[in-house]
């Protein structure tokens, strides 16, 4: 049996005891160039590229076929075809924006403004507040509308205030001016300055990423009267009318950042209406730019691609067209993808892995010395309630009501967004659909959904190096097993642990157990806060922002190793390719994180990404005594930590 280790990417001049990430991936990193059309590259991208090529064949066949009107195949083909008709898009220029620009010009007061904002948001354009529908965190058997802070066009609020982003801010103002000029709008430089001033004001009230991820702080449920009382000046009735939603759909809302909405209400009252209209014109042009003429596409990429991420080249048009199909008709394309590319045997093997991971967690929870019996039983109850989803949904989404026209690209984008808005709002008042998926089968990723207490693994991630049906158990448990463990672990991280087994945000911990858990989480925060990425000296990881994912990595890897031992029934696996079973397990984990990023992208991700850089994800092994045993790690080795400094939660 093969080991499943990609030896050609290893740097054997590095000792695994000093840097497991570099030992497994160092040669690949030094010899691999990041493709010009992206800001980072690695294992996830390689698999995504393969899925993208497979989807290209599917959508090009659909575009060339004369499928029956109204069928999913016809819609996939017509949507892709509308995007690929570059000549028509260039001929139209900014003409598709004319009617909406006219509506903005006609806005006479804040009621008009909010009505138009609702109408534009229904069709996918960004506003000052972003609505979405999800299960109610305090009542998981029902849906509710959430209201999320919005209104800014830089990656997050830190970009508007931190000195390190001053050059980005200057470049952004120039970009806004150029985009408005290309759209044929007057006084572009003055307009850009006013856009920046308004967005800076909005950003000053945005909650930072660490506060926003707090599940308790970000839950404030208000009825319609209370919402209006806290936000005088915001015409919610006009906004709901513009959304074409029933008023009762917003009878109750969960406000994620209530102080932002209060600040927004003040801004609507105090900022000149013409400034709001200028900002709205910018948001309209910005959101539509990827679907307009080549000059706007190029300028949009120059800032959001080249400046913000460092990527030197725009993605090929067919790739962007495939992405559009995935966003608008993801499950229609996914159904065709699964029929061609997902073997049923993979699902059966994955369910076996999940069962072993759950059993390993069950045994681990039963032995935790920091958790008392009352909390332990509730944790086991939650574990028993976990729902795994593998590969693809049992019921595919119905796109019958979505109109797609071969000659109307921006119209297709707008109608697809409106279709999704209506689909989401239609959930309200009905039973929770626990069969729904929030990733497509062709997505190379996985997720944990606390509101449904489920772990989900799309088909596209179930291939090497994550999952190899021909490789021995060690690498599979180190790779996809640790990913499974990571996602289960999110149910017990600093935020997921606040939800019970039914998906409700309730405090099911004893006070002492929560305090002990928080102490361990804080130790992990402090450990990661001291890490400097090797390519970004002087910059450090935000330990508080990344703690949930770091707990997921730490717990997932720990439990995956225990599950591996369950799978091998305590026997000693053979040596393959010169590595023991335990060593192959950790090598399998590290090669999953084979990746590199351009400097601008690495800086951006440090600010906004809840995941730590890849090198620290791989090297979380410094906390596991199993790693010390596997590689004989001793004091003096770079990955060695004193026992009292190692963090072990699960």
Entry keywords:
Collagenase (Catalytic Domain); four-stranded mixed beta sheet; 25 helices; alpha/beta; three-stranded mixed beta sheet; Neutral endopeptidase, domain 2; 9 strands; 650 residues
How many angstroms does the end-to-end distance come to? 31 Å
Apparent shape: globular
CATH superfamily of the domain at 344-394 and 442-645: Collagenase (Catalytic Domain)
Mean pLDDT: 95
CATH architectural grouping of the domain at 344-394 and 442-645: 3-Layer(aba) Sandwich
Helix content: 40-55%
Provide a compact summary of the structure:
The protein is of the alpha/beta class and about 650 residues long. Helices cover about 55% and strands about 5% of the residues. It is built from 25 helices and nine strands.
Report on this model:
The chain has 650 residues and is α/β, with parallel strands linked by helices. Among the domains are: 95-291, Neutral endopeptidase, domain 2 (Orthogonal Bundle); 344-394 and 442-645, Collagenase (Catalytic Domain), CATH 3.40.390.10. It is 54% helix and 7% strand. The chain has helices at residues 20-31, 43-64, 72-84, 86-92, 98-105, 110-122, 166-182, 188-205, 209-212, 224-230, 236-243, 258-270, 273-288, 294-309, 317-341, 344-367, 373-384, 409-425, 473-490, 511-529, 543-567, 581-592, 599-608, 614-618, 625-631, and strands at residues 40-42, 129-136, 139-149, 220-223, 252-255, 387-391, 447-449, 454-458, 595-597. A hairpin with a 4-residue loop joins β7 and β8 (454-458). The two termini are 31 Å apart. The mean pLDDT is 95.
